[in-house]
Amino acid sequence: xxxxxxxxCLRSLPLFSSVDAARLKLLAFNSERVRFSPxxxxxxxxxxxxxAYVILRGSAEVTVETPFGMVKVATIERNSLIGEISLxxxxxxxxxxxxxxxxxTLRINKENFLKLMTESPKFMLCVLEVLSxxxxxxxxxxxxxxxxxxxx
Length: 152
Prior knowledge:
Blueprint: H1 3-12, H2 21-29, E1 32-36, E2 41-43, E3 51-57, E4 59-66, E5 69-77, E6 81-82, E7 96-99, E8 103-109, H3 110-119, H4 121-145
Antiparallel strand pairs: 1-8, 2-7, 3-6, 3-8, 4-5, 4-7
């Protein structure tokens, strides 16, 4: 995939849609293409967040460790961004992500991601909207399952 293709891929993600072409091109240029084999771990829950990944090809499984073992919470596919939550502050990874197929990603390091946030207020607002939406969905899911694992 050439740089123009990576920029097109980034532009297709709602999170990056408001970022101007020059900044997206610079972000793609400064990012690293990383491939994973099926079963290979991108990162583990609890790891320090050092990068976000854009899925260019393939799919991966998102799991979280619970008192009852590992639970699959999502499958992510092409044109998805993962790992960005842990880039804010000194956060840890909130889940483990494992490639389920041959996976090709664009690895955006923390420094470049945060730089884009400071240079593009629209991008920062999009990140906040995504995080707010995920928090809302997670809160609703927890409320649905509250008491399911409580013991008398």
